[in-house]
């Protein structure tokens, strides 16, 4: 639905581009029945810049951040997967909390 020369952030990423500091150039709104409109922000493709490549330091920082999200704050164990923010703890701790509540 976007006019030629414009793309959403996700479409830019799929093309290997990023907004590159430009502001939102246009906005599409699709009405919905019971909620507010669905909004898509559009950026100009000709002003977009290429995505910056991942450097070894960035890869290391990403690994460190992911490793920190695998440690349960309750039992302090490395559970081997990223702990969902909705729970805030590993599956075993969630099950224990549910048992206590019941």
Describe this protein's structure.
This protein has three helices and five strands; from the N terminus they run βαββββαα. The N and C termini lie far apart (50 Å). It has 102 residues and is α+β, with helices and mostly antiparallel strands. The strands form two sheets. The protein has a three-stranded antiparallel sheet with strand order 1-4-3. The model has no long low-confidence stretch (mean pLDDT 92). Strand 3 and strand 4 (38-44) form a beta hairpin. Helices cover 29% and strands 18% of the residues.
Primary descriptors:
102 residues; three-stranded antiparallel beta sheet; 29% helix; flat
Task: Tell me the series of helices and strands, N- to C-terminal.
Answer: EHEEEEHH
Kindly name the structural category.
Answer: alpha+beta
Radius of gyration: 21 Å
End-to-end Cα distance: 50 Å
Measured by DSSP, the beta-strand proportion falls in 15-25%
Main sheet properties: 3 strands, antiparallel
Q: Please, what is the average pLDDT?
A: 92
**Strand segment count:** 5
Low-confidence stretches at least 5 residues in length (pLDDT < 50)? Answer: none
Query: Helix count?
Result: 3
Global geometry: flat
Q: Helicity, in percent?
A: 25-40%
Query: Major sheet: order of its strands?
Result: 1-4-3
Chart the SSEs and their pairings:
Layout: E1 6-7, H1 9-14, E2 17-18, E3 26-30, E4 38-44, E5 49-50, H2 56-68, H3 91-101
Antiparallel strand pairs: 1-4, 2-5, 3-4
Outline of the structure:
With 102 residues, the chain is of the alpha+beta class. Helix content is 29%, strand content 18%.
């Amino acid at each position: 639905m976007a006019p030629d020369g414009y793309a959403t952030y996700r479409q830019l990423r799929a093309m290997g581009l990023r907004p590159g500091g430009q502001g939102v150039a246009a906005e599409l709104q699709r009405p919905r029945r019971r909620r507010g409109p669905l909004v898509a922000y559009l950026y100009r493709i000709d002003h977009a810049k290429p995505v910056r490549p991942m450097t070894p330091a960035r890869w290391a920082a990403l690994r460190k951040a992911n490793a920190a999200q695998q440690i349960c704050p309750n039992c302090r164990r490395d559970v081997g997967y990223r702990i969902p923010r909705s729970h805030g703890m590993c599956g075993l701790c969630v099950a224990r909390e549910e048992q206590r509540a019941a």
